[in-house]
């Protein structure tokens, strides 16, 4: 039996921050979030204190796997305990101990690729600085400190990376530069470039009823909350990119149909599934909305079920590849490729 639920909306003001991997702070609950404390994210920062996301949960898993104590465990919240643990992790790797998962730390953690800042064929003072640092550490650089990044410098960099447990590419990436500078003295010879932010999709107009067109939403998919951020295009395991928006809420929180339509597909969790329990809600024009990581489905919900906007169709969970309870929500206009759902969700959120 389908239930109609009137949602209580509260005005909540948050600062929406976009970046390559994670966004702003949240907590695990179902009521509207209190106004977040605005904090500035410097270029090259992947995650920092105040963030709450799946990326933070992954960072916490990495810290625990490294044998570093983490009060509170894996909860997706970047608080003081996580900051202290990151600082300890950085010290173990001879990285700058700032408590922030910056680009060098993220490379060591395997969260972002080791993008070359200097590589074979480069020349100039930055190359000379790297060569001198290698020499200071007792690593032979064939050709000496000549400012030319050739085979000798490549081999020396690769030897350093192998000895430190870094990706042995022979190129100087942000992590290699930071650790070299820390161990050999001086400052990093190169400055990592800030990661490009995905191009935002146009914001749709709010839709007060189900008389909507295109991919616009008639209602927010959960009870009122502002615990979601724009993570479109953020890296995921296996080289994937995030194709949805993650909305955090306690396990068992009800989920609504965002439009009137038909449940076109239902998936039950299975071993190795990324989405876990999932639903596809399709409207008359072929647009479909994808709900993933459900704890379970509402009574009577299954393939072919007709639903109206606001009907309860399932419950928030963490099935599949989800370390904390949340709804992964996608928008596919006309049944095509996914588009950034953040502006559509934001438009009906009152956040």
What does this structure look like?
By secondary structure, this protein is of the alpha+beta class. The protein folds into 3 domains: 1-23 and 198-351, Glucose Permease (Domain IIA) (Distorted Sandwich); 45-109, PGBD-like superfamily/PGBD (Muramoyl-pentapeptide Carboxypeptidase, domain 1), CATH 1.10.101.10; 125-184, Orthogonal Bundle (Muramoyl-pentapeptide Carboxypeptidase, domain 1). The chain has 7 helices and 10 strands. It has helices at 54-65, 80-92, 103-109, 125-136, 151-164, 174-184, 342-347, and strands at 45-47, 101-102, 245-248, 254-256, 261-267, 277-282, 288-297, 306-307, 312-316, 326-332. Strands 3, 4, 5, 6, 7, 8, 9 and 10 form an 8-stranded antiparallel sheet that branches. A two-stranded antiparallel ribbon has the order 1-2. The longest helix has 14 residues, at 151-164. The protein is elongated and about 75 Å long.
A few lines on this structure:
The chain has 7 helices and 10 strands. It is an alpha+beta fold and 351 residues long.
Summary keywords:
alpha+beta, Glucose Permease (Domain IIA), Muramoyl-pentapeptide Carboxypeptidase, domain 1, 7 helices, 10 strands
Write the layout of secondary structure elements.
Blueprint: E1 45-47, H1 54-65, H2 80-92, E2 101-102, H3 103-109, H4 125-136, H5 151-164, H6 174-184, E3 245-248, E4 254-256, E5 261-267, E6 277-282, E7 288-297, E8 306-307, E9 312-316, E10 326-332, H7 342-347
Antiparallel strand pairs: 1-2, 3-10, 4-9, 5-6, 5-8, 6-7, 7-9, 7-10
Helix pairs in contact: 3-6, 4-6
């Amino acid at each position: 039996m389908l239930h109609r639920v009137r949602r209580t909306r509260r005005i909540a003001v948050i600062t929406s921050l976009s970046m390559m991997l994670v966004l702003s702070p949240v907590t695990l609950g179902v009521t509207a979030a209190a106004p977040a404390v605005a904090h500035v994210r410097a270029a090259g920062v992947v995650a920092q204190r105040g963030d709450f996301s799946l990326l933070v949960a992954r960072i916490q898993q990495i810290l625990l796997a490294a044998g570093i104590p983490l009060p509170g465990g894996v909860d997706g919240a970047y608080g003081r305990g996580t900051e202290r643990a990151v600082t300890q992790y950085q010290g173990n790797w001879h990285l700058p101990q700032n408590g922030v998962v910056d680009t060098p730390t993220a490379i060591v953690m395997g969260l972002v690729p080791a993008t070359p800042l200097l590589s074979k064929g480069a020349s100039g003072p930055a190359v000379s600085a790297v060569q001198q640092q290698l020499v200071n550490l007792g690593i032979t650089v064939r050709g000496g400190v000549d400012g030319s990044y050739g085979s000798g410098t490549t081999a020396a960099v690769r030897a350093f990376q192998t000895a430190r447990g870094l990706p042995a590419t022979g190129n100087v990436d942000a992590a290699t530069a930071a650790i070299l500078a820390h161990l050999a003295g001086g400052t990093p010879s190169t400055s990592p470039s800030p990661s490009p932010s995905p191009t935002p999709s146009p914001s749709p107009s709010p839709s007060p009823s189900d008389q909507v067109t295109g991919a616009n939403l008639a209602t927010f998919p959960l009870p009122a909350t502002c615990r979601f951020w724009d993570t479109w295009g953020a890296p995921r395991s296996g080289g994937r990119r995030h194709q949805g928006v993650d909305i955090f809420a306690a396990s068992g929180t009800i989920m609504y149909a965002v439009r009137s339509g038909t449940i076109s597909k239902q998936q039950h969790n299975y071993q190795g599934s990324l989405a876990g329990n999932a639903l596809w809600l399709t409207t008359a024009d072929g647009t479909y909305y994808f709900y993933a990581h459900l704890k379970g489905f509402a009574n009577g919900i299954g393939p072919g079920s007709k639903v109206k906007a606001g009907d309860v169709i399932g419950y928030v969970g963490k099935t599949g590849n989800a370390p904390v309870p949340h709804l992964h929500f996608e928008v596919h206009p006309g049944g095509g490729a996914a588009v950034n759902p953040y502006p559509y969700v934001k438009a009906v959120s009152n956040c």
